[in-house]
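Quiz preparation item.
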């Protein structure tokens, strides 16, 4: 996790970035990552930041992020972000 800035549509935005997360198999499909992501979204919102998820390779996670209204970074199609 890191705090930085990203350039979108000609503007620099403050971001919270998820760079690398691994959930051990025994904890997968139990809602831990969803709860963690929800807390990060709340944190990003409270500090007026965009939550940015880098380099998603898991197709299930890609589908989940789209379902949660994350947008695909057109420059990095394996990266997603959410502004709210």
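Solution:
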């Amino acid at each position: 996790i890191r705090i930085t800035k990203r350039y979108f549509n000609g503007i620099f935005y403050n971001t919270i970035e998820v760079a690398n997360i691994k959930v051990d198999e025994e904890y997968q499909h139990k809602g831990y990552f969803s709860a963690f992501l929800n807390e990060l979204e709340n944190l990003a919102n409270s500090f007026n930041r965009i939550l940015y998820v880098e380099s998603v390779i898991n197709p299930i996670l890609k589908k989940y992020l789209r379902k949660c209204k994350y947008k695909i970074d057109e420059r990095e199609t394996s990266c997603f972000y959410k502004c709210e």
